[in-house]
């Protein structure tokens, strides 16, 4: 038996982990007398203790200052976005002008599609991937219908060309080029949610622009998970949520990116008063003068209580350093892959690419014996305090996240799967 398949080895790896102390900053759910083995940060990140403190600070400000909290105190609400603009931009590889925290993901997607999906003449088609997250699929279909277009002819659904539902860069490029001057917008994920495959944002953007189309991205499973360089990629826009790898809480405020070249473009948009330029916002004029950059897409007052956990978790990312987080992610997920291939290759199929550059924390797994056995394994893991998630039709996702997961968590999950196999 490999020495890697031992608690002694996992404990050595954990002892050498420079980020091991970060785990103590998170509330870990219990399973009986023990902590859960929580491998579901791809769906909902754990609560940082600092999130509660951050929310309590704002509750205290509300209690003590009421409406004056907008203008006074250590963090006046009128300028609350100022404290997160820089760390948010760093996290996604953007300029501060290009990012904003607002709304939720699908709301932001609709707002940016309203601006950037501008069908005219034969250039009216919109491209997404097969098996896109349902909310994305539903959003783009409704946008097509809003413009009086038939999704059956105007929606291009890109089919995977590789095994296990994966896409090659060449296939994506070829599909974009094939539709050429009929293509208005490409909307693809940074990380495909079911398979965990990382897509090449820069290459997709270059192909879309060469075809005369807009390039937009859903980064729900990419933000806080994999390195991003949105500004340098040239992407026109992107949206993401903050409740997965960013650990900002269930239904947390989301984020949006609009490239700097659109900062002063007068791009058509659905407007609201908080998107009005700050200098004249309170003049209460009926005319709309948008703030330059992504903040010009805001509609309403920022939700202060929802922003507080995001501010806390962004501070954690800055202290840890994303390079260190990414290095641990590669090692931790690699350890999970190695153990599965060594110990469970006859039981589990790994759908996620083996190349670390084409994946983040997540491994998508399929039980070789079929869906019924997959459901049985998933239930067994939950019953034994090991939390992943299930995605239809037959995928179990396990995501060891570097801020709070250990090598020991990974080992114990694999041991539990081996015990399930032995009893079936």
Describe the protein's architecture and organization.
By secondary structure, the chain is an alpha/beta fold. Helix 2 (49-65) crosses helix 10 (304-320), helix 3 packs across helix 10 (304-320) and helix 7 packs parallel to helix 8 (201-210). Strands 6-12-11-10-9-7-8 form a seven-stranded mixed sheet, with helices on both faces. A four-stranded antiparallel sheet has the order 13-14-17-16. It folds into two domains: 7-35 and 321-423, Alpha-Beta Complex (Aspartate Aminotransferase, domain 1), CATH 3.90.1150; 55-318, Type I PLP-dependent aspartate aminotransferase-like (Major domain) (Aspartate Aminotransferase, domain 2, 3-Layer(aba) Sandwich), CATH 3.40.640.10. The protein has helices spanning 7-15, 49-65, 82-92, 105-116, 134-146, 151-154, 169-179, 201-210, 230-233, 304-320, 322-343, 371-383, 407-423; strands at residues 26-27, 30-31, 34-35, 37-38, 47-48, 99-101, 125-129, 155-158, 183-189, 214-218, 237-240, 255-258, 348-350, 363-367, 386-387, 389-391, 395-398.
């Amino acid at each position: 038996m490999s020495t890697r398949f031992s608690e002694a080895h996992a404990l050595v790896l954990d002892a050498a982990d420079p980020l091991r102390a970060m785990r103590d900053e998170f509330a870990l759910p219990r399973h009986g007398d023990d902590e859960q083995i929580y491998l579901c940060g791809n769906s909902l990140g754990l609560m940082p203790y600092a999130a509660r403190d951050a929310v309590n600070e704002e509750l205290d400000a509300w209690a003590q200052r009421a409406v004056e909290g907008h203008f006074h105190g250590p963090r006046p609400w009128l300028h609350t976005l100022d404290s997160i603009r820089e760390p948010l931009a760093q996290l996604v590889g953007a300029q501060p002008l290009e990012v904003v925290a607002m709304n939720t993901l699908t709301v932001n997607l609709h707002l940016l599609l309203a601006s950037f999906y501008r069908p005219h003449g034969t250039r009216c088609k919109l491209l997404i991937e097969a098996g896109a997250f349902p909310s994305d699929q539903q959003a783009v279909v409704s946008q097509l219908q809003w413009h009086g277009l038939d999704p059956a002819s105007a929606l291009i659904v890109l089919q995977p060309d590789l095994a296990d539902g994966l896409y090659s860069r060449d296939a994506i490029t070829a599909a974009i080029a094939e539709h050429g001057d009929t293509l208005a917008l490409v909307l693809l994920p940074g990380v495909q949610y079911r398979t965990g495959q990382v897509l090449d944002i820069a290459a997709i953007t270059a192909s879309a622009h060469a075809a005369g189309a807009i390039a937009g991205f859903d980064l729900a499973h990419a933000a806080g998970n994999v390195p991003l360089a949105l500004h340098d990629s040239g992407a026109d826009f992107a949206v993401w949520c903050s409740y997965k790898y960013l650990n900002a809480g269930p239904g947390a405020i989301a984020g949006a990116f609009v490239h700097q070249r659109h900062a002063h473009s007068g791009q058509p948009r659905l407007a609201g008063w908080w998107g009005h330029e700050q200098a004249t916002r309170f003049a209460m004029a009926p005319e709309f003068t948008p703030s330059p950059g992504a903040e010009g897409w805001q509609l309403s007052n920022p939700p202060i209580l929802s922003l507080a956990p995001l501010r806390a978790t962004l501070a954690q990312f800055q202290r840890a350093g994303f390079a260190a987080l990414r290095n641990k992610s590669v090692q931790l997920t690699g350890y999970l892959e190695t153990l599965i291939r060594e110990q469970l290759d006859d039981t589990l199929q790994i759908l996620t690419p083996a190349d670390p550059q084409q994946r983040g924390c997540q491994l998508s797994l399929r039980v070789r014996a079929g869906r019924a056995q997959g459901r049985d394994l998933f239930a067994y893991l939950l019953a034994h305090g090991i939390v992943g998630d299930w995605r239809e039709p037959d995928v179990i996702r396990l995501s060891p996240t570097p801020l709070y997961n250990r090598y020991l968590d990974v080992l114990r999950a694999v041991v539990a799967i081996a015990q399930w196999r032995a009893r079936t």
